[in-house]
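thought: fold this chain, then report.
action: predict
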Amino acid sequence: MINILIIGAGEAGQTVLKEILENRTLNRRFNVVGFIDDKKDSVEGYSVLSSIDNVSTVIKSYNIQEVIIAIPSAKRGVIERIISSLNDCDVTIKIVPGVMDIINGHFNINQIRDIEITDLLGREEIGFDEEELILQYRDQVVLVTGGGGSIGLEIIKQLLLLPTKKVIALGHGENSIYDLIGKFGTDPRFDYIIGDVKDYSKLIHEFNRFKPDRVFHAAAHKHVPLMEKFPDEAVKNNIIGTYNCAKASIASGVKRFNLVSTDKAVNPTSVMGTTKRIGEMIIHSLNSIQTGCKLSFTRFGNVLGSKGSVVPLFKKQINNGGPLTVTHPDITRYFMSIPEAARLVLKAGVLEDGDLFILEMGDPIKITDLAKKMISLSGYAPEDIDIKYTGLRAGEKLYEELLTKSEEIVETGYERLLVSKHRQKNLTEDEIYQLINNLKEICETYDNDLIKKELKIWVNEYQETVCQ
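observation:
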């Protein structure tokens, strides 16, 4: 049998104990030796063997092979303290899900998982506000572009937890759609479209066929260095594709349209950020030009574990023995978990007041610190795996911003979701038409300098960075 130690003698720890004792298969496999807790003395006849600071001694004394951290509301410092105390112990470390899953009754023993870097960067504590979202999304047909991407997939997953009538994923890649079918295909409300946001004819056909009430536009090219090399693709996908989706939404009677944007759109130094900024401008302007469809955009920073993010890269580099590559010792980024980002986007999609929503990202995190935490989390000492500084890449900033100088934000009714009250300068219909047509023509030249020059005309604050 595997000797287990449960850290945390509260409700979550007691739930873990109960599930093991009442499940015959688990009871035969696992032996709960006791608990670790800073406050309690015993739980259901099981001893609290020590405080967190002395956990390593307990592990050695009782031959513990697996530790389950059952403190779902723990802050970053508490989790770091626990992990630090286990660094020299040869044990498997598991953790329970976030506090909201337990509060909502969604927690069971199968959700206990390996510890991840997100657990060291602050636990997700933002609630689903399920009762209010149920009212807003009941019997709604919702279409999500970029459905195969990290954010799009999570939006779909959370929409299917609500009483939606139908949830449609639109994706360009057949493999990503195939994966979605495997995940959600048994739900009769799930449907899908293989299509490209650059193809307006296809969009209007599908929008008229499904008649969505709401559209979440998550499709985008996001990789900064790649878009520096192929700015024509960034323009076509992030600007023209966004315009096509918004235009198709208005034409087909969609009631709500929300663009998923990025902090890289603020004072952009990259083609990717500039194209996302122009996408924001188009959405803001179209929202003021017409009244049939409420258009808005939600801006946030990096998402931990998303495709192309630094976390999967670091994991791969650690598995290869290092080094971990960081572009600059001082580079910082805002981070949040994929579920929290998607959850807040869904909330932004129901608010009426304002069209620019900002997700409160907390404090920025040094990428070097993130690399060190991942090395430690993987069971290595700092000297075991090197960190190599490679220099800033084309279009890359040292730090990101969530607001321009002229944007002022106030709270919404949802925690960590803010709205800007600043009224930006609108483009007229003629200006939008001119913008789109100019960009279409210039993209066909495949002249990178010419494309960037045109982008600067529309976004004055766009300043290219020089690689270091």
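thought: worth noting. Residues 130-420 form a domain with the Rossmann fold fold (CATH 3.40.50.720).
final: tokens above.
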